[in-house]
Amino acid sequence: MTNPPTTAGVYQVIATVNDATYCGSVTGVFDLVRRPLNVFCHDAVRGYGDPDPVFTYTLSNFAPGENEAQLTVLPWVVP
Length: 79
Hints:
Largest sheet: 2 strands, antiparallel
Order of helices and strands: EEEE
Radius of gyration: 23 Å
Shape: rod-shaped
Number of strands: 4
Helix content: under 10%
Number of helices: 0
């Protein structure tokens, strides 16, 4: 592969075989889709008249070797 994909998108793929028994090539399209990121909001409790607690969350389903540091926009949690 001369230029492996680094982002989601549609890529043309060409496979070629050339040996003593077989030879030929085939062209196809490879559609790489974005990986969904899961957001789990933690439970919070607030008594009547009390200020809002700190709302927290956990992110999961990152690609191997990636984490929250690669996000350009972080989720925000509002009451």
